[in-house]
Design goal:
The longest helix of chain A has 38 residues, at 39-76. By secondary structure, chain A is α+β, with helices and mostly antiparallel strands. Chain A is rod-shaped. In chain A, the strands form four sheets. Chain A has a three-stranded antiparallel beta sheet, covered by helices on one side. Helix content of chain A is 47%, strand content 23%. Chain A has helices at 6-34, 39-76, 103-121, 174-190, 195-202; strands at 83-84, 87-88, 130-135, 138-143, 146-151, 156-161, 164-168, 207-209, 212-221, 228-236. By secondary structure, chain B is α+β, with helices and mostly antiparallel strands. Chain B has a domain at 45-153: Ribosomal protein S3 C-terminal domain (2-Layer Sandwich), CATH 3.30.1140. Chain B is built from three helices and six strands, in the order αββααββββ. Chain B has helices at 2-61, 74-83, 85-103; strands spanning 64-67, 70-73, 108-113, 116-120, 131-140, 144-153. The termini of chain B are far apart. The chains are: A alpha+beta (238), B alpha+beta (156). Chain A binds chain B through residues 3-4, 7-8, 11, 14-15, 18-19, 22, 25-26, 29-30, 33-34, 36-38, 42, 45-46, 49, 52-53, 56-57, 60-61, 64, 67-68, 114, 117-118, 121-122, 170, 223-226, and chain B through 6, 9-10, 13-14, 16-17, 20-21, 24-25, 27-28, 32-33, 36-37, 40, 43-44, 47, 51, 54-55, 58, 61-62, 67-68, 70, 75-76, 79-80, 83, 136-143, 145.
Amino acid sequence: MKKGIFLPIIAIFTIVIVVVIGFMFYQNTAKSRTEVVGEKSAQLIKTIINYEKNDYYVQDSARLAYCDSLEDLSSNYVISGCVIDGYPEWTSEINCNPDNFDIEKNFNNYFISHFNNYININPFLKGMKYKFSLENDGFSLSSEPLEQEENYDTINMNYDFTTDFKTKIDSNLNEYKNLIQKSKEYSDCINKDTVDNCNKKIGLNGIKIDKLIKFEVPSIKNPCTLQNINIKFAILTS
Amino acid sequence: MINKKAQEFAIYGVVAFLLIIFTLAAYWYLIAVPYGATKTIKQSIVAKDKLDADLILLNYLRTPVTLEGKELFISDLIRLYFIDKLKYENQLKQETSDIFNSVFNNYKYKITFGSELIAENGFTSADPDYMVIVDSILPLESSGIVEIHLEVNLKT
């Protein structure tokens, strides 16, 4: 070997080695760090979050359907053939007696109709079967299992969506029942006394026009819209 | 004379060799490897934040608010906003900004209801890797719905 060539060869050789080692180190580092870690866990968590979203949607829809049903009850609290001058007539006669109007049955029908509309908008909840029951100060709702399928890149999941909750709500049907009771007391009162005196005694604000006493009671508040719900009715005097 | 030149050449050679080694080492350890690692760490954060944003949007909807003396939720306030925009617009936008400003204090976000912008903090779109987009639907009165759309730019 020529003098003076040994050192440059060593230098070049070392540089090549360092480059190769450095490149291998970089490749290994990059490879090990680009692997996705915890993907299945993330997908499971995502499914749980979706479940929570659907559960909240159901609760929200149930509250809305309850409020819509209160509105329906107020505007449709009419027995067929018992409307005078645009006001539902409430009398103790059999045909127009508000006791004949099954308040709970009608409310349940309104609720089912509205609630089905809400959940059918959500593709995950479409066709969900459930049980709804009125409570003293709200309602309870529990669903039957609804099969859901989630397909991800690394995992497929099937789970049963169920929801079960009780909700307290400000306005309840007792307010309607109390109003019917008051209307009966008012009917008895008006046979013996004047409108002004009966208004004071019973706590209703009736306005007499000819033989008709009209009432618009705004005591019930829609808990969703915070607007007063006016219940209109009229009593026919002799 | 020749020996002295060879000696000088050898010294310069050693210095140059050490400089090259030092430069390469510095490149791998200070630029190449940290750059690769940083990119991967960012991706992990993005994945985590996508899940978080979904949950944050849900929690936003069920945040309690006081309205006319009643304890309701943001979801109720949104519905009231769609009934009477003039009356509830200020409160809705204020509550929404307060919630998201405290949650995303380092990130830019934008929240829209349908096509209506409700709150944002200087949001601009970024590379898709750094964008988180989540949606939720909310039932409205009379069987309607509104789509709530949250976009977050994770590039700080």
